[in-house]
Amino acid sequence: MSLSVILLVLLALAVVGYVLGRSRALGSAGGDMQKLHSLPSYYGWNAALMVLIPSLLVLVVWLIVQPIVIHNQVASMISEASIEKSSLDLVMSDVKRVADGLDAAVEAGAMTADQASSIRTEFTDVRDRLGDVGVALGSDVNSETLRAAQRYREIASTGALLRLIVVVGFGLAGLAFAYMRSHRDFRARNVVERVVRWILLSAASIAILTTLGIVLSLIFNTIEFFRVYPAADFFFGLTWSPSFGGGSELGIVPLIWATLYISFIALSVAVPVGLFAAIYLSEYAGPHVRSFAKPMLEVLAGIPTIVYGLFALLTVGPLLVDAFGGGGLFGVDWMQGASSVLTAGFVMGIMLIPFVSSLSDDIINAVPQAMRDGSLGLGATHSETVKQVILPAALPGIVGAILLAASRAIGETMIVVLGAGAAARLSLNPLEAMTTVTAKIVSQLTGDADFASPEALVAFALGMTLFVVTLLLNIAALYIVRKYREQYE
Amino acid sequence: MTDATLGSPLAGPARKKSSLLAVDALTKKRNASEARFKAYGVSAVVIGLLFLVALLWAILSNGLGAFSQTFIQVPVKLDKGAIEAAEKSIVKTSKYRAIINTGFRAELGRAGIDTGMDDRGLQKMMSSGAAATLREFVLANPDQIGRTVTFEFVASSRVDGYLKGRVKREDLINDKNLDAAHLDLIDAMRKADIVTKTFNWQFVLGTDASDSRPEQAGMGASMVGSFFMMLVVLMLSLPIGVAASIYLEEFAPQNWLTDLIEVNISNLAAVPSIVFGILGLAVFIQFAHLPQSAPLVGGLVLTLMTLPTIIISTRASLKAVPPSIRDAALGVGASKMQSIFHHVLPLAMPGILTGTIIGLAQALGETAPLLLIGMVGFIASNFPEGVGDGFLAPNSAMPAQIYEWAKRADPAFYERAWGGIIILLVFLMAMNILAIVLRRRFERRW
Amino acid sequence: MNELTHVDEAAVSGQPKIAPAVEPKIVARKVQVFYGDNHAIKDVDVDIPANSVMSFIGPSGCGKSTFLRCLNRMNDTIDVCRVEGKIELDHEDIYDPKVDPVQLRAKVGMVFQKPNPFPKSIFENVAYGPRIHGLARNKTDMEEIVVTALQKAGLFAEVKDRLDAPGTGLSGGQQQRLCIARAIAVSPEVILMDEPCSALDPIATAKVEELIDELRENYTIVIVTHSMQQAARVSQRTAFFHLGLLVEEGPTDNIFTNPHDKRTQDYITGRFG
User: Fold this and answer.
1) pTM, whole model, 2 decimals?
2) What is the pLDDT at residue A362?
3) Is the ipTM of this complex over 0.90?
4) Which of A66, A422, B189, C269 has the largest count of CB atoms under 10 Å?
5) Is the pLDDT assigned to residue B90 strictly greater than 90?
6) Is B25 on the interface with C (CB under 8 A)?
7) Neighbouring chains of B at 3+ CB pairs within 8 Å?
8) Could you tell me which residue ranges the ABC transmembrane type-1 domain spans (chain B) (predicted)?
9) Which of A287, A368, A376 sits opposite C105 (nearest CB)?
């Protein structure tokens, strides 16, 4: 019984509940709305919510628990011998694939349900038969796997049936309960409002759940990674050379180096340009210039990063090669390909200009006008006022803005994936291709690697490092900016 | 003008006075530094604007070409025998290709163009998909068999590039695909009006094509993928975002849970997008076993990513509704919940929608998380077959499709990638304009 | 360095308590100020005598602050503001295109309504002006200037042990005296004060008023005030503004005891304001 059917049944029950709850409440008041505690629709909503909330909760729990139960049940059928040969995880994924294959075969009509649960490897070549219906299996199916798969299907179908009964049962019970309570003295509005409040709270809690999800998915896989690869080698290793055949060296240092190098170049483009643009626009520019230039600069912030990535790879990179490459403008042969630290850093700098400038603009505008008056009244020029009064006053806020920009630069992915290169290198030359933490997360997780191999798991350790670093930067920046704002409020 | 003559009699006798009308050396220096500083400011703004212009110029100059496509007009005689033979053959396309070649040669002969080229050389003029085009036509219109039909076959990407001026003659000489004879042939064909250039609907509406056929690759399928993803984002992030904002703005008590939620929201807004991709991979694909490359999963990841943005802007619009409205509703006996849902929320709605559209635009252009959930590397060569398929069947998305093309070896795909960016930017611009119009139209000053 | 010596010499030369209006420090003729389309100041003529205190009084929005800000061209910083007419400082038109407002403001200092010390140390607050105008040759010079300014502002005794503490940490009255010290440190000839005591408590106000009285010996002071008592206490001459017009100007005693104009009379007797 598929999930959508259950959901439809519940929805239908909710509608029924609404109608019944409403009419019973009205009936108890003799059709006179004035005698009801709440508006009739609240009685209806009460019944509908009573149907939906408990049953949906049960359904969610069921969806989480059932796979675990099945896994344990089926795993006990696997012999020690086959676990030793590969691993329980691999065998289990084989079992699942065979079970799915049998499902597909039954659905396609290539087998009857009976056949699917009774075929034996001794008599049939399961792999061929599944291949006929378009289910490709990597290896031959042995009898143990097949039997485990059949058991898997059995439990799963019983589970699905039970699930339908239990979930719909809860829905009906809720309906009955709400129906009994729908009486004119029942405070339906208060109940409904309390429930809605809980719904609002749970919506707000999704932010916590998301963070929790990020942290858990990073931590579990990182621990898994450190089980197969020593943490010290990861954090202090100077070489990054993954090889999917095994024997990889996965040192994060060259990746961190390139990440910081690129971020540094990006910030040295974005901070001066962004800061001076903000100073000019907020201190000097007339309203006309400001109303034109500010939104124009902000367009740069609205352009997706993939566009910057392409710009780096296909426009800026080749231009730099024309200048610094062999036979180029300067007659030096310093640059081999379009991808380089400078390419990525420069383009990332362009991307960050509006980020720095709009944050600095806010911060400069928060410096009270009295400061400017005080300085100008003493005979300071405008630039002296900016340099010696406004900027020092705004310094904490600007530092916060730069930290936020740095966190952006470190976490930026598309520009470095396209513009920085793929080879990890520890070098000082900005015209060389290097690769960053984010770029390697992408390349390690988009290959065909097995998720249990250190070469794939390392991506989670990289992600964890990235997450921690950017989190610290963000928290520091938000703290500084908040303190700064309080000072002038 | 000496200082002493202008001195005030009230000042002491030894008082030397400086005149206001003469600018002294120090002031000159200070004014020069002022002018310099201002010049730095102006140049920073100009540099920023120049970058914008350079970016837009790169996009337009490289990408506009993708919107036109060269076609080669070939009258093909649909000979019954030849087609039946082709259908019986194992490699059907090569037989169909031979049929095209015959027609092509005849057409060239009619135009008086003489080529000493063999079939293999001649085939390079057209997309390798031409044979499939012919076969599809024949299978769809069996009644046309026996007649001569004029087809417009898609020219190969290099022919197309040469005619658009994207690829220079000098570069093509070294290319293993075309040689000088081909280029002469193209020039002759152009003179004979055998080639036409029209708007490239296939690029806008078509599906992606394999590595060897850049001339047939289109954005259509990935646009559908993006559409379904945005649908998921809209359906989830709007209600959840509004509910969360209402709670935080109107109901949340001052306690640790509220603080925790607030801190989480502001931090999530600054978490790198790739981390959301890792979350999607680990939770939705590895843990919940949702299908890879599915717009549903992409939409879920993007929802989590845009929620903080939407919550922040929604709270701002709720805050902008003056307390007097709430008081008025409470004053006539509405409950707090009723005052919010009946009065505050409708008034805040334009602001909420504006914020949501801007959040959606952000999500539409986001690429990094999609890489990790498998929306890249998948060739979106088919349209989804229905709504369910639209959410669950593997597909690409616009930015992912652009990335996919940027990665491919054949530079002909770069033009497609830039063109794809133009389409993407048109969507983003439309969404932003919609947001601005909404804000202008419904903006209320209290 | 001229200004520096001037201060000392002026101090010893000893000016009479009430400066005779024979040679005015500032002469304003037919001054008009516009904020966009709003005609804020109309045809103001006034002579401001040297080494005395002149106060501008009048109801809110009468233009007295606007006129004060014309005297050192602080209005230049407001885009829509336009000034016509003639204002002369020692016979030189301060709105002459050759005049650099920066140089002008070094001669005509200003103290604002709300104390606005910079977010720097007390020392740096005072040293800021001399530094930008290049008044100190070396560190010792600078220390001398700062100490002298703080002494003249009557603040030195209170802060001498914590010159490195932030200026924002002082009390409101101390902050305002710091701002006065900051203005004095540049050795201006004229000090403009825009309601300098409106944000202070009575004790701090008394101290600032005392200070103004002392400063009169060396500086020409123009003060805008809301309080008629304050004008009576500190100033030798008073000008009454109403609706952008200078209604009446004269020795303070005359204005308060024997006003000529009906509007002045109404204002000082509290009929409007």
Assistant:
1) 0.84
2) 87
3) no
4) B189
5) no
6) no
7) A, C
8) 223-435
9) A376
Q: Which residue has the tokens 């609404």?
A: A18
Q: How many domains does chain A have?
A: 2
Question: Containing domain of residue B251, as a range?
Answer: 220-442
Q: Does residue B434 sit in the same domain as residue B340?
A: yes
Last residue of a domain, one of A152, A170, A186: A186
Dihedral angle, C-alpha C223, C224, C225, C231, nearest 10 °: 40
Measured between CB atoms, which of B14, B21, B31 is closest to C92?
B21
Rounded Cα gap, residues A242 and A411, in angstroms: 22
A176 shares a domain with A89: yes
- Residue A384: give its domain's CATH number: 1.10.3720.10
Domain count, chain B: 2
Q: Is A77 inside a domain boundary?
A: yes
For A275, the token pair is 């800061």
List of domains in chain C = 2-268 (3.40.50.300)
Which partners does chain A have (≥3 C-beta pairs < 8 Å)? B, C
Backbone CA torsion sign across A186, A187, A189, A193: negative
Residue with the larger pLDDT of the pair C19 and B432: B432
Instruction: Decide if A57 is inside a domain.
Output: yes
Q: Which helix (H) or strand (E) holds C231?
A: helix C228-234
Mean pLDDT of chain C: 86
Closest CA to B270 of B227, B312, B333, B219: B312
Q: Which residues of chain A have pLDDT under 50?
A: 1
User: B155 in a domain, yes or no?
Assistant: yes
Asked whether residue A282 is assigned to any structural domain, the reply reads: yes
**pLDDT per residue over C7-57, tens digit each?**
444 344 444 444 444 578 899 999 999 988 889 898 899 999 988 999 999
B218-265 confidence digits (pLDDT tens): 888 889 999 999 999 999 999 999 999 999 998 888 888 888 898 889
- Which of the two residues, B111 and C225, has the higher pLDDT score? C225
Cβ-based contacts of B273 with chain A (< 8 Å): 411, 413
B17 part of contact set with chain C, CB < 8 Å:
yes
SS3 readout for chain A: CCHHHHHHHHHHHHHHHHHHHHHHHHHHCCCCHHHCCCCHHHHHHHHHHHHHHHHHHHHHHHHHHHHHHHHHHHHCCCCHHHHHHCCHHHHHHHHHHHHHHHHHHHHHCCCCHHHHHHCCCCCCCHHHHHHHCCCCCCCCCCHHHHHHHHHHHHHHHHHHHHHHHHHHHHHHHHHHHHHHHCCCCCCHHHHHHHHHHHHHHHHHHHHHHHHHHHHHHHHHHHHHHHHHCCHHHHHHCCCEECCCCCCCEECCHHHHHHHHHHHHHHHHHHHHHHHHHHHHHHHHCCHHHHHHHHHHHHHHHHCCHHHHHHHHHHHHHHHHHHHHECCCCCCCCCECCCCCHHHHHHHHHHHHHHHHHHHHHHHHHHCCHHHHHHHHHCCCCHHHHHHHHHHHHHHHHHHHHHHHHHHHHHHCCHHHHHHCCCCCCCCCCCCCCCCCHHHHHHHHHHCCCCCCCHHHHHHHHHHHHHHHHHHHHHHHHHHHHHHHHHHCC
Q: Do A378 and C183 touch (CB under 8 A)?
A: yes
Q: In the listed set B150, B169, B199, which residue is the last one of a domain according to the structure?
A: B199
Residues A142 and A262 in one domain: no
User: Among candidates B97, B103, B104, which has minimal Cα distance to B134?
Assistant: B97
Boundary residue ending a domain (A186, A211, A226): A186
Residues of C (98-137) whose Cβ lies below 8 Å from A? 102-106, 109-112, 114, 116-120, 128-129, 132-133
Among the ranges given (A269-273, B113-117, B132-136, C75-79), the one the predictor scored with the smallest mean pLDDT: B113-117
Interface of A with C in 388-447 (CB under 8 A): 388-389, 392-393
Same domain, B116 and B263: no
